[in-house]
Amino acid sequence: MPGKASILDSILATPATEDGRITVAIRSSLLSTLFEDSRPLFMSGVASVFVALAAAMRLQQTWAIVWLALDISILAARLGVVYLYRVQSRPATLHPAPWAARYTPFGLLACLLLGVGTMACVMSGDHALASLAVMVTAGILGGIASRNAALPCLAITQVCLGAVPIGFGAVLRADTDYWILVPPLIMYVAAMVSVVRRHYGGLVALMTAEQGHAELAARFDAALAHMPHGLCTIDEAGKVVIANRKAAELFGATVEMLRLNVPLPEFIGYVGLAKFGEALRTQLVERCTEWLAQERAPLDLKLVDGRHLEMTRNPVPDGSEVVIIEDVTERKKSEAKILHWAHHDSLTGLANRRYLGDHAERLMSAAGANHEHKVAIMYVDLDGFKSVNDSFGHNAGDEVLKTVADRLRNVMRRGELIARLGGDEFVIVATHMSNPVGARLACRIIQELAAPYLLSSGARAQVCASVGIALAEKGERFEQVLKRADIALYDAKAAGKGMVRFSIAGPDAAQGQGFDDARASNDEDICH
Q1: Contact, 353 vs 421, CB < 8 A?
Q2: Dist. CA 384–CA 450, nearest whole Å
Q3: What is the DSSP secondary structure assignment for residue 12, as one 8-state letter?
Q4: Which residues pair with 308 in a beta bridge?
């Protein structure tokens, strides 16, 4: 058995060519050529059976009848092996090597039987039968050299088994001139060997190239399927010709829902239909259509689940375009966070001076000439905050500042702005203010901020606040009003802790004169 296996392995060998080694995949493809098309096998088998039948009918000899019976049996066996392989390989891919080993002995026997039978026909003295047998054998061996060229050792062995006995028969038939067949027979075999080798080299080169292309395509498909962004290619007509799985997943669809050879707006609308419904589908189609008609700026799509998608177009020299679809939700959040902290204090989360100025200017412009309800700028400064830092440390001071910010938020109405200018200074921009309303609000702020502060260490801190208020007049800029509020705050702190002072516009404003105590209703130390 080892010897038999070794002979079969040698006959079924697939030697390396100048183009390189034979990979496992290429060898499997070469072996499978034995079973790809059974029609040439069937037709050559029928031709061989026909010669055997002609010999049996013309010669009426036992060997011809035996040849006919064996030829039919071997043909049936070869077709049976091919049929079984093809049937069993349909549900699952089979490795062709075991089946090639089953088929090969029958193929070799068929050629040997054909060669011996033809030799017998030549030696029979029946010239017509001999001519028929030689002609049919030459055709069958030529077909074998082409059909089985993927297995060169097998094809050459089959050609030799079919041709060599004919030469022996021509030589052994000494009383005729059949010996003249020997030289062309030798050249025929040499030609068939050359054909086999040439076909084999071409097949291997082709399969190697196909395998390289397949591997490259597989890598491309893997990259396309697993890339973190959606990708689709649109042709010159604007139709989607390539799309990856991520393009569907970003819109909540599956890869099976991808529709190719449709315009890009229809493609985008369809993949968004399953998760987001008809309303968003229509919106996606409209926005995508408008985007294609404009410059190649990115298209931002906000989905109803809160995610942001960004689509960009990149032109290709052949007139097509590559569209990249990216989930930029986290980037948008980061940008919003950066923008937020660019306008807000990092410790308290309140607005900073830059945002304060822009917002106050807008409110002051909107207020216009309403003399009854104006925009008020309230400058708040903590009294005793330095002692908190000195007694409990800067971490405790930060805790107090955060709590102050929370208390101010609770006091103010929706839409009013609180900002921290730095240290323990805060500014409030309040709308619809008059002098009495402003005084009452300032007193409430002082009362809220005067409550004790429970620190994380368990200690209690105490601070108070002083407030300077300036009501914006028509035509004033924010910085002018803020300066007046700062002057009023200076007067309030000079009067003692927990005090409120107003600043008035006009001739007295330069001196920082405030309203009298009765109108301010705050000339008392609320902290004590």
Answers
A1: yes
A2: 11
A3: T
A4: 302
Alpha-helical segments (H) within 124-181: 127-147, 152-172
Q: How distant, in Å, are the alpha carbons of 67, 381, 528 from that of 460? A: 116, 20, 17
- Tens of pLDDT, residue by residue over 150-185, are 899 999 999 999 999 988 887 877 666 777 878 888
Name the pairing type of β-strands 240-243 and 299-302. unpaired
Q: At what angle are helices 152-172 and 182-226 packed, to 10 degrees?
A: 170
- The first and second tokens of residue 125, run together, are 């003295």
Number of Cβ within a 10 Å radius of residue 474: 12
- Rounded to the nearest 5°, which phi and psi values hold at 263? -60, 150
Beta-bridge partner residues of 240: 234
Element (H, E) at 273: helix 264-293
Write out the two tokens for 377. Answer: 């700028």
d(CA 502, CA 443): 12
Separation between Cα atoms, residue 255 and residue 286, nearest integer Å = 23
Which residues lie closer than 8 Å to 508 by C-beta, 6 or more apart? none
Q: Which two tokens stand for residue 41?
A: 């096998």
Give the count of beta carbons closer than 10 Å to the beta carbon of residue 207. Answer: 21
Q: Give the mean model confidence (pLDDT) for residues 61-89.
A: 92
pTM of the model: 0.53
DSSP for residue 453:
E
CATH, range 338-520: 3.30.70.270
Distance in angstroms (rounded) separating the CA atoms of residues 239 and 224 = 19
Q: Is the CATH number of domain 230-328 2.30.30? A: no
Outline which parts of the chain fall under CATH 3.30.450.
230-328
Count of C-beta atoms within a 10 Å radius of residue 490: 17
Which tens digits make up the pLDDT trace of 298-346? 888 888 888 888 989 888 888 888 999 898 888 888 888 888 777 888 8
**477, 361 Cβ separation under 8 angstroms:** yes
State whether residue 369 is helix, strand or coil: coil
Residues of the chain with CATH 3.30.70.270: 338-520
Give me the torsion for CA of 501, 506, 511, 516, rounded to 10°: -40
List 87's β-bridge partners, or say none: none
Q: Please name the residue that has the structure tokens 């926005």.
A: 287
What does the block give as tokens for 278? 């008809």
Cα-only R_g, the chain: 49
Tokens 């025929």 map to which residue? 188
> Residue 7 has which token pair?
């002979």
